[in-house]
Design brief:
Blueprint (H helix, E strand, L loop, with lengths): L16 H5 L4 H8 L15 H12 L7 H4 L12 H18 L8 H9 L6 H5 L2 H17 L1 H5 L5 H13 L2
Helix pairs in contact: 2-5, 6-10, 8-10
């Protein structure tokens, strides 16, 4: 992650990553890059009661209203049951929640976002569903997280391995 390389990420074309990351409104840009329709259903809601409940939770909110109340419990995370289309729809919310909580280790969302980005590695269903521009945007966001929160990552507040693994997955696919 060279700070001085040129980027082709949407909205950041032609300027160095170092200069551009601080100026990006990541929340707004995520909404533009991941401007996808809300799925009618997010999971195989007829599979079981748990899938139906998770589908109901995701269907009842939107990208602006979903929060930690719905997504903040790793043991009961409806996105674990979501289709790739559902994850793409909610990716701006994951970025928003990560940015809103990253400075509060007691309620941070970064680790859960990384879990969803990594899933089962290179070529996972979310990475495969995203366009090149979307993958570059996610890789750029992860670079921003590393650059702007390096001290927290180095101190072990966040998993350096997970951040770097997610970046590797999203960069390799670009």
């Amino acid at each position: 992650m060279d700070k001085h390389t040129k980027t082709t990420a949407p909205g950041l074309e032609g300027i160095s990553r170092y200069e551009s990351f601080a100026a990006v409104d990541w929340k707004q840009q995520a909404k533009l890059v991941f401007n996808v329709p809300k799925p009618l259903h997010f999971s195989d809601y007829q599979h079981c009661c748990e899938c139906a409940k998770h589908d109901q939770t995701l269907s009842a909110s939107d990208v602006d209203s979903i929060g930690l109340e719905q997504l903040g419990n790793p043991g009961w995370d409806p996105l674990c049951f979501s289709s790739a289309a559902g994850l793409m729809y909610y990716l701006p919310a994951l970025i928003r929640l990560t940015l809103d909580t990253i400075d509060n280790p007691r309620e941070t969302y970064l680790d859960q976002m990384l879990f969803h980005l990594i899933r089962d590695g290179v070529g996972n269903m979310l990475v495969s569903e995203c366009s090149k521009a979307q993958r570059e945007f996610v890789a750029g966001f992860l670079e921003y997280v590393v650059e702007s929160h390096a001290s927290q990552i180095e101190a072990g507040v966040y998993s350096a391995d997970d951040v770097l693994r997610a970046h590797e997955i999203w960069s390799a696919a670009s």
